[in-house]
Amino acid sequence: MAAEGHAPSAGEYIVHHLTHLQNKKQASIVDFTVFNLDSIFYAVVLGVIGCFLFWRVAKTVTSGVPGRMQAAVELLVEMVDNQAKGIVHNAHSRKLVAPLALTVFVWIFLMNAMDLLPVDLLPRVGELVGIHYMRVVPTADLSVTMGLSVSVLIVCLVYNVKIKGIGGWVHELFAAPFGDKPWLYPFNFLMQIIEFVAKTVSHGMRLFGNMYAGELIFMLIALMGGAWSLSATGIGLAIGHIIAGTAWAIFHILIITLQAFVFMMLTLVYIGQAHDAH
Predict the structure, then answer these.
(1) What does the pLDDT average to over 225-253?
(2) How many CA atoms lie within 13 A of 273 on its CB side?
(3) What pLDDT shows up at residue 29?
(4) Which residues pair with 22 in a beta bridge?
(5) Backbone angle region of 15, left / alpha / beta, with phi > 0 → left and psi within -120 to 50 → alpha
(6) Residue 206 known to be catalytic
(7) Are 263 and 207 in contact (CB under 8 A)?
(8) Nearest-5° angle of CA 196, CA 197, CA 203?
(9) How far is CA 151 from CA 80, 87, 95, 129, 165, in A?
(10) In this model, does residue 96 exceed pLDDT 90?
(11) Is 202 considered catalytic here?
(12) Percentage of the chain with pLDDT > 70?
């Protein structure tokens, strides 16, 4: 990690930990041929782990006294189903929307939870096998969170067409929110497009911003521990590192859960809005 063999400065340490493992060097600010391989890898692995856990619970489910894992999954499924019923009133749509919301919640929670691992743990393991850059929190990657929000947008567009028909939806694009008047059509259409874009951008940016900030704070706390020495100041930094790290980790458990829940709820709200006619 350190350049030319010297110990990295605080700035170099943070920049190193914020650098993605990519398939090639990015040639411009916007280059759709560059992929963050670390984010893709961990997102896929955590998705597989989540599916495996649900598969194991489904395979061993019992009608008698449930085990702890089955009870936890049943509570989670019931919670998501109740939220879906309160927002999406179409029972047929909920057969897909409720499992989608559950998947979103569990997947994002698992990706967020990677932030609770020690900052240097997996990057150091990667360095041992020749991988010098690695970020392990997929939701601290804007491309991941925006990919998730764009996926939700696509689902909303599909339900707009499915529920209202292509003609009904196109008419709504031009007739709402200001009214079905020809001279208002341009303003209505512009507002509809702005609404779709704003919801999609805010959906992804909210999750990214919270997780990115949390990741930075863990790095700053790690720097406190790295600066310890056999002096009063150094020992104070080491103690502060332990206290701050423990406190922030405990508080961060609430953040990663809350952010997964908020993303899931907004997904349900946006899909529910696609079922409503203006």
Answers:
(1) 82
(2) 14
(3) 62
(4) 36
(5) alpha
(6) yes
(7) yes
(8) 90
(9) 19, 19, 18, 34, 20
(10) yes
(11) yes
(12) 93
Residue pair 208/133 in contact (Cβ under 8 Å)? The answer is: no
DSSP lists the bridge partners of residue 36 as: 22
Place of tokens 């600066």: 227
Residue 27: which pLDDT band, with cuts at 50, 70 and 90?
low
Q: How far apart are CA 20 and CA 36, in angstroms?
A: 6
Catalytic member of 39, 112, 149, 210: 210
Rounded (10°) CA dihedral 236, 237, 242, 243 = 70
How many residues belong to the chain? 278
Is the Cβ–Cβ distance between 108 and 263 less than 8 Å? yes
Which residue is catalytic, options 63, 206, 229, 231? 206
> Which parts of the chain fold into alpha helices (H)?
10-17, 37-59, 68-87, 91-113, 121-128, 142-175, 185-226, 232-275
188 is catalytic: no
CA 184 – CA 252 distance, rounded (Å): 47
- In the chain, the N- to C-terminal Cα span, in Å, equals 56
Token pair of 18, please?
């914020």
Quote the DSSP letter at residue 135.
-
Please give the pLDDT value at position 25: 79
By the 8 A CB rule, do 49 and 146 touch? no
Choose, from 9, 23, 82, 202, the residue flagged as catalytic.
202
Phi-psi region of 179 (alpha: psi -120 to 50; beta: other; left: phi over 0): left
Q: Give exposure, 74-96, as e/b (b: 16+ Cβ within 10 Å).
A: eeeeeebeebbeebbeeeebbee
